[in-house]
TrEMBL record:
Root EC class: ligase
Gene: gluQ
Protein name per its UniProtKB record: Glutamyl-Q tRNA(Asp) synthetase
Gene Ontology terms describing biological process: glutamyl-tRNA aminoacylation; tRNA modification
Domain Glutamyl/glutaminyl-tRNA synthetase class Ib catalytic stretches: 11-235
Protein's organism: Pseudomonas mangrovi
Keyword Iron-sulfur applies: no
Motif window: 'KMSKS' region: 230-234
Binding positions for L-glutamate per the UniProt entry: R11, F12, A13, P14, T15, E47, Y174, R192
Enzyme Commission number: 6.1.1.-
GO cellular component term of the entry, any: cytosol
Length: 297
């Protein structure tokens, strides 16, 4: 017997540290089409966990961009800034169970560790005030089958070490928030950029620890600039121009390997999306981690 899959619920989860750019449009579009093709719901979550890095006005601009590109979401926008109580409760429980601990290492002390936390504070019993909170990771490899990128594995202890779930400045880490929010919103399918592929094993481990079910994952290629950098915040991309919605949606469809017919060139956003929803074929997405923007037509 086939296991029964719950009805599809997808989401787009932008961070308001900058505006949407062509790369985020590609990810949003893939997530939208993957959901709508099977009649699923598509939710929106504002990942406003880090006020100091937030760009004033970005939240509204992101919502307006999605609307002008015809990417309409279901229900209310969930804001991570409203979810601190949920994060705090789980953090407290992990601390009490000894699964997480306080770390007082300075950046300087961790230099030379090549990004792999050596476990210095594991058994030090530091107070949690003015300390980062790290999650103990098992000496195990975590693997999953990505719908586009194939099998991906990471050995949490050897490749990463115990990772931060609350920063020293008191801000909650993305890894913790994303896992709790995906579960709270009942997300069955995560579709996002391939820059997050190597975050997924951490999220699988947290889901396992907290008794949450694993969503399916699909990581779309990251759009990169000629110098190899990802498009984005660092370059202060301007907002997606509303008057460019048709050509940019057509370009994003082609970047995702969807064979948009020539006669739909110049069609309205709603028409392009209607075609996309009907013809969506996730197996046509290029099986690569990156795509050069300059090569997209
Ligand atoms: N907020 C993250 C970003 O903008 C995406 C998180 C996710 O999709 O899991 O890169
Ligand atoms: Zn430490």
């Amino acid at each position: 017997m086939q296991p029964i899959r719950p009805p599809y619920i997808g989401r787009f989860a932008p961070t308001p540290s900058g505006y949407l750019h062509f790369g985020s449009l590609v990810a949003a579009l893939a997530s939208y089409l993957d959901a709508r093709h099977v009649g699923g719901r598509w939710l929106l979550r504002m990942e406003d966990l880090d006020p100091p890095r937030e760009m004033p006005g970005a939240q509204d601009t992101i919502l307006r961009s999605l609307e002008s590109y015809g990417l309409h979401w279901d229900g209310e926008v969930l804001k991570q800034s409203q979810r601190h109580a949920a994060y705090a409760g789980v953090l407290e429980r992990l601390l009490q169970q000894g699964l997480a601990y306080a770390c007082t290492c300075s950046r300087k002390q961790l230099e030379g560790c090549a990004g792999i936390y050596p476990g210095t504070c594991r058994d030090a019993n530091h107070a949690t005030a003015d300390a980062a909170i790290r999650l103990r990771v098992p000496n195990l490899e975590y693997c999953f089958e990505d719908r586009v990128q194939g099998r991906f594995c990471q050995h949490l202890q050897r490749e990463l070490g115990d990772f931060v779930i609350r920063r020293r400045d008191g801000l909650y880490a993305y890894q913790l928030a994303v896992v709790l929010d995906d579960a709270a919103q009942g997300i069955t399918d995560v579709v996002r950029g391939a820059d997050l592929l190597d975050n997924t094993p951490r999220q699988l481990y947290l889901q396992e620890l907290l008794g949450l079910s694993h969503p399916r994952y699909l990581h779309v290629p990251l759009i990169i600039q000629p110098d190899g950098h990802k498009l984005g915040k660092r370059y202060r991309s301007p907002p997606l121009p509303p008057e460019q919605a048709s050509p940019l949606l057509a370009r994003a469809l082609r970047a995702l390997g969807q064979a948009l017919p020539q006669e739909l060139e110049g069609a309205l956003p709603a028409e392009l999306l209607e075609w996309g929803v009907e013809h969506w074929n996730a197996s046509a997405i290029p099986r690569s981690r990156t795509l050069a923007e300059a090569q997209l037509r």
